[in-house]
Amino acid sequence: MTSISSGFRAPNINDVSSLGIADFRYEIPNYDLKPEKSINVDAGFKMQSRRASANIVFFRNQLKDLIANVKSSYNGNDSIDGVQVYQRINLNQAVIQGFEADGAYSILPSLNLFGNISYTYGKDLDTESPLRRIPPLNSRLGLKYSGSKKFQAIIEWVHAGEQTRLSGGDIDDSRIQDGGTPSWNVANCSVGYSGKFYQVNAGVRNILDEVYRCHGSGIDGRGRNFWISLKLFHIWNL
User: Quick one: which H or E segment has residue 69?
Assistant: First the structure.
């Protein structure tokens, strides 16, 4: 399967008139911003058999006049009250490309292996520099057991690679540690049971209590935590 499409985004009020401290920077307005334009190309395939299924899609997004925050100055000063000045401008050309894939395999009638993986690469083609906040390689692998229509259990491993390709904005961002965001691994498990009038689910997230942070996030992910939910159903004859 293949598709080609175009995109368009006009500057919003925040893009044009932002003035003041935002996150780690001091933003000043730019009233001359032009709309962003893009040409998107996707190509991939799907496969399904009695025991397995898989999907993979490659994408490339060619961007023109992409709106990005870059270092600037205000009245001849590159900082205000010690905070670096930034201004949104239009980049001439940029590209975001990568792939996404997922699949599942039935090991036994009641036991299924599943997983997905994605990778994104972003680049300013004029300066040959990385785009801001591009996520690293992300993947998930798990097993799902369905002993009956009423009971199921899932265990999964979630992984994010390190992200050391940083833009100037990433380097200045206090939410991203020096050198980039480290890789991390998180394990989760859950069980569920469905009755005629109810459904109960419970689980443990981040079983190994890993300290981690998604790239660009301002807070760490949750440590080991337990959860439980109960849903009640009733059908009335109206």
Answer: strand 52-71
Each residue of 29-60: b (16+ CB within 10 Å) or e? ebeebeebebeeeeeeeeeeeeeeeebebebe
- Which residues span the domain enclosing 63? 1-97
Q: Beta 20-22 vs 2-9: how paired, if at all?
A: unpaired
Helix, strand, or coil (residue 15): helix
Q: Which two tokens stand for residue 39?
A: 């040409």
Count of domains in the chain? 2
pLDDT in tens, 57-97: 999 999 998 888 888 888 888 888 778 888 888 888 999 99
User: What pLDDT score does 235 carry?
Assistant: 60
CA 77, CA 226: separation in Å to the nearest integer?
A: 50
